[in-house]
């Protein structure tokens, strides 16, 4: 049998590869620390023991992501989201380092989280910045755009948290940050990739215009662990 491609299950490939130092395991279930990333990986066809391990690891009442899971959770779990998505991969993006892009640090996290709250690009938590490089652009000292690196399967780096304050959209700031990250990722000998919700056609068209192409579709789902979990 051929080995699966790292991008077929990128969170698992990250947590068993370059991000293994973040991995928290219980049985066949692995996740990032809860303040780093919400990603939690279960087998594609989890059995009752796997679901019990998810519940024990995540905790009662927690909403957990279920990416490309082919079996439904137990009846006692509440499905809270099921969203069609796409995975895009570099197919000739022009990478170029932008002199105005600044490297963000832990000291910038409160401002980064505030920008994420205003723009809703996806989860960004208090320690997400530890996953890779995050870059920003400031205007009058205020952070108005950012983008960074999230999942890191062997040989690949995901560009994520791409966002711009509403008052500064239309100026190409996010594009400049993406191109800078592409240049840095390529300089490490890796390939950039991204994810987007399928309904976000505006973002997909933008990424395709930069030189990304859709590699595959995906389903982004999430379920809530029952409020009370039986002891293992």
UniProtKB/TrEMBL annotation:
Domain of life: Bacteria
Domain N-acetyltransferase, chain residue ranges per copy: 99-232
Alphabetized CDD domains for the sequence: NAT_SF
InterPro entries referenced in this protein's UniProt entry, alphabetically: Acyl_CoA_acyltransferase, GCN5-like_dom, GNAT_dom, YpeA/RimI_acetyltransf
Pfam family name, one: FR47
Keyword terms: Acyltransferase, Transferase
GO molecular function: acyltransferase activity, transferring groups other than amino-acyl groups
UniProt-recorded name of the protein: GNAT family N-acetyltransferase
Native source species: Actinomadura rayongensis
């Amino acid at each position: 049998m051929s080995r699966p491609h790292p991008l077929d299950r990128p969170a698992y490939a990250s947590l068993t590869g370059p991000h293994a130092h973040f991995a928290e395991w219980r049985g066949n279930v692995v996740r990032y620390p809860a303040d780093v990333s919400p990603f939690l990986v279960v087998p594609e066809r989890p059995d009752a023991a796997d679901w019990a391990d998810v519940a024990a690891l995540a905790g009662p009442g927690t909403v957990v992501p279920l990416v490309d899971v082919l079996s439904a959770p137990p009846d006692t779990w509440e499905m809270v989201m099921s969203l069609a998505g796409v995975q895009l991969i570099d197919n000739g993006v022009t990478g170029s380092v932008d002199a105005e892009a600044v490297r963000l640090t832990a000291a910038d996290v409160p401002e980064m989280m505030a920008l994420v709250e205003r723009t809703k690009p996806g989860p960004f938590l208090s320690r997400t910045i530890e996953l890779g490089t995050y870059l920003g652009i400031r205007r009058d000292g205020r952070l108005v755009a950012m983008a960074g690196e999230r999942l890191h399967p062997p040989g690949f780096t995901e560009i994520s948290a791409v966002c711009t304050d509403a008052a500064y959209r239309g100026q190409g700031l996010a594009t400049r940050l993406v191109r800078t990250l592409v240049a840095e990722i390529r300089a490490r000998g890796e390939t950039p990739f991204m994810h987007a919700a399928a309904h976000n056609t505006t973002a997909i068209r933008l990424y395709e215009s930069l030189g990304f192409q859709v590699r595959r579709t995906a389903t982004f789902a999430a379920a809530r662990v029952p409020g009370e979990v039986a002891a293992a």
